[in-house]
Amino acid sequence: MSKLDINLVRRLPVLLARQGRSLELLTSTSLTSPPIGTPPTDIALSASSVLESAVPGTVIATISANGDSPWSFAKLNDPDSKFRVEGSNLILDQPIDFETDTEHAVRIRATNASGSHNKDFTISVLDVAEAVAPTVVDLSSTSVFENAGIGAQIATISSNGTAPVTYSIENDPDGKFAINGNALELAATLDFETDTEHPVTIRATNAA
What we know:
The chain is mainly beta. It is 14% helix and 38% strand. It has one helix spanning 3-32; strands at 43-45, 49-51, 59-65, 72-77, 83-86, 89-92, 103-112, 115-126, 137-139, 153-159, 166-171, 177-180, 183-186, 201-205.
């Protein structure tokens, strides 16, 4: 065996040992490397209340999350079946009524490439004043001179209902009156010697 051959034999185990340690270090590093990106750990809504008068399809809030974007959002639980999630929007899916329930629960999940997070929210229902149907109709005056011309305003009409209120003549047996907005007007000539009074029935109508 030459001197050169002896040197090669002696060096070989050293090279193999170094290679082994290098491989072991590489394997250890790959097992302990952190995941790529940051998973969401919190979810937020831009609003947590909605008017009871809101119609299905109304956007209640924008959904956001921490962690790396992009995220996707999903509704996990909605015991009253009032909501849906579209993109990053929480949307009213069914009619709501303050007098029936003042709040509704919903659970939302945020997901990105690194993981997901769930969070429960309570959406408050805000009361809206209900329209009150009119029960009384009043006239500012109940008399008119016999020489008043056609179109003359006899009285202003008012009621106790929630505005806006519209008025109409329901009965006018003598055909003497007309309504213009909230004004009762004369629609035909009068004669005291023929009739000293004329009946009229007025209807008040509003949204209720």
